[in-house]
Amino acid sequence: MLSFKTILLCSGLVLRVDAFALQFRNPVTCLQPLECDTLSTYWSPAARQDATCIFTPANTQDVARAVKLFTRKNCQFAIRGGGHSYNPGWAGIVNGVLISLSNLNTVTYDPQTGLASIGAGNRWRNVYASLAPHNVTVLGGRSSNVGVGGYLTGGGISYYSNERGWATDNIHSVEIVLADGKIITASREQNSELFRCIKGGSNNYGVITKFVLETVDASRPFNGFVGVYPDSSTNDLFTAAYSYCTGGSDSDPKSHMIFSSSINGTSVALNAVIMTYRDAFDAANPAPVLEPYLDSNIPNLAIIPISINGTVGEVANALSNGQAPGNRYTMGTFSIYADLELLKDLRNIWAEETTTTIRTRPGFATEFAFQPVGEKWLASSAARGGNSFGITSPLVVVWIQPRWNSAADDAVMVEYTDRVRTRCEQAARDAGKFAKFRHLNYGGRNQDIIPSFGTASVLRMQLNKIRYDPLNVFGRLVPGGFKIPGF
Ligand SMILES: Cc1cc2nc3c(=O)[nH]c(=O)nc-3n(C[C@H](O)[C@H](O)[C@H](O)COP(=O)(O)OP(=O)(O)OC[C@H]3O[C@@H](n4cnc5c(N)ncnc54)[C@H](O)[C@@H]3O)c2cc1C
Q1: Is 89 in the pocket of ligand 1 (CB under 6 A)?
Q2: Is Disulfide bond among the key words of this record (predicted)?
Q3: 42 touches 83 (CB < 8 A)
Q4: Of all atoms in ligand 1, which is nearest to the CA of residue 203?
Q5: Residues 227 and 338 in one domain
Q6: Ligand 1 in reach of 203 Cβ (< 6 A)
């Protein structure tokens, strides 16, 4: 890795020690001075890496100048959207410059085209709030504090995914800065191969500065609930969840469900379902797809309304408030083909590995969660031109997410997560139900993600990598993030 000194030398940057500000000394080389900002927060302090300089561009041209300079001078850098990655170095860098996109935060809506133009440094909270007066919304984070850039380039599971596919499938076009500083548009019409690769391509092709997104009608009400169920309800709940994984989500794609189990410290495990419904809700006559979770057939501890006949923004804000930044987290993910016994076995593995030694670490909590990806979701992705994921049949995305307090426990928690994941993957293989796909947005630091998209996708991504980033700037000089094999 290049040292900061090397970066200074090679770029002609001069450090103003007092303000920790960098200025380009040579205006011909550098076009305009770059100033260093102070650090914005990371959602998980376990992912934090402090860059030597944080550069916060005001517009796309600033991004282009910086990238061109870094490419020419061989300077390492990182790209940050909302800083919600779980992995250190993905949106931070040691001995390098962090391009933080937080000032690229405009949101506009064109009623003629029905498209929304979103600056890549936005968080979903601002996007939902800005679009709400137009009675439209977009496929975005289920938690509103999440950043737009990382979420969309990693796929993006949204409350609307059963109807509209991955959020990334709903991108109409992007504005992207390539390694040579060129600003181009990629869409189904222009640079169409690059466009497809970006959907799951993370930071491998360039810095995306703007996303133009298809919108969804938001004139109808949106509802969200959290059902909380005791450990003793696991069998009943998982049976219902299995049914949702195997046709339930397709039977009423206005619904969306995240199934999870959690352990908080030394307390007994609980189950939860976050469920949303994109239409009017009548408590006396709920949509049949929701009924099993709301009535008492599956004994519950509480059904907590998040927003009744409200908006998607309200639901995402509420979830975000429950997942505030500041705690340490890591993540691990894999996928399976739906199987009731396997789902229960995986939950048992997770519970078994969550030993007393792990549970008694300060601030410990852990979540085991799964997300069905059904036929209509996949059909919607295909109808919109496809993506990089290489998924051909319905599956269930699974993830393990521990939380803890102390940096001293970081390594233990990463090991714990990897151990649970590896055992679960083996159990899925043994059951003949292992699905190769790994959801990039939930990928842990020790996981290979892009190879899980399959040979055809990887080959397409590699070919376009050579075409659009021939010097491999976004592999070589941007060390963080999930990389394309060979780059
Ligand atoms: C509380 C919480 C809730 C979440 N909910 C969901 C959910 O509902 N659905 C889901 O799919 N995921 C979800 N995620 C995962 C989330 O999508 C990823 O963590 C995602 O990377 C966050 O995007 P970001 O811009 O905040 O990330 P960052 O940490 O800023 O960036 C992540 C990666 O993307 C790259 N990147 C970011 N912006 C750009 C850009 N403009 N151009 C090129 N590369 C870029 C970065 O270099 C980095 O490698 C959630 C995460 C958290 C912490």
Answers
A1: no
A2: no
A3: yes
A4: 44
A5: yes
A6: yes
Q: Which of 80, 144, 176 to mutate to test the pocket of ligand 1 (most atoms within 8 A of CB)?
A: 80
Length of the chain: 487
Give 482 Cα–ligand 1 centroid separation in angstroms.
Answer: 12
Q: Are residues 64 and 138 in the same domain?
A: no
Q: Which of 413, 414, 411, 323 is nearest to 360 (CA)?
A: 413
Q: Which atom of ligand 1 is nearest to the CA of 481?
A: 49
* Distance from residue 149's CA to the centre of ligand 1 (Å): 6
pLDDT digits 0-9 by tens, 105-141: 999 999 999 999 999 999 999 999 999 999 999 999 9
Supply the pLDDT for residue 20: 30
pLDDT of residue 37: 83
Q: What is the pLDDT of residues 306-320, one digit of tens each?
A: 999 999 999 999 999
Note whether residue 330 is domain-resident. Answer: yes
| Dist CA 61 CA 197 (whole Å) | 23
- The β-bridge relationship of strands 97-100 and 77-80 is parallel
Ligand 1 close to Cβ of residue 82 (< 6 A): yes
CA dist 196 and 369 (Å) reads 28
5 has a pLDDT exceeding 50: no
Is the Cβ–Cβ distance between 422 and 439 less than 8 Å? no
Residue 278 Cα to ligand 1 midpoint, Å, equals: 24
Residue nearest to atom 52 of ligand 1 (CA): 84
Q: Could you tell me the residue range of the domain that residue 270 belongs to?
A: 222-446
Q: What CATH number does the domain containing 66 carry?
A: 3.30.43.10
How many structural domains compose the chain?
A: 3
What are 211-221's pLDDT values in tens digits? 999 999 999 99
Q: What is the CATH number of the domain that holds 403?
A: 3.40.462.20
Q: pLDDT, tens digit, for every residue of 350-379?
A: 999 999 999 999 999 999 999 999 999 999
> What are the distances in angstroms from CA 451 to CA 311, 377, 389, 400?
37, 22, 10, 20
The finding on whether 373 has its CB within 6 A of some atom of ligand 1 is no
Q: Does any ligand 1 atom lie closer than 6 A to the CB of residue 441?
A: yes
What was the pLDDT predicted at 33? 56
Assess whether pLDDT exceeds 90 at residue 13: no
User: Which run of H or E residues covers position 225?
Assistant: strand 222-230
**H helices within 42-145, ranges in order?**
60-73, 124-131
Write the residue with the smallest CA distance to atom 33 of ligand 1: 150
Atom of ligand 1 lying closest to residue 47 CA: 29
Return the residue whose CA atom lies nearest to atom 34 of ligand 1. Answer: 150
Q: Where residue 39 falls among pLDDT bands split at 50, 70, 90?
A: low
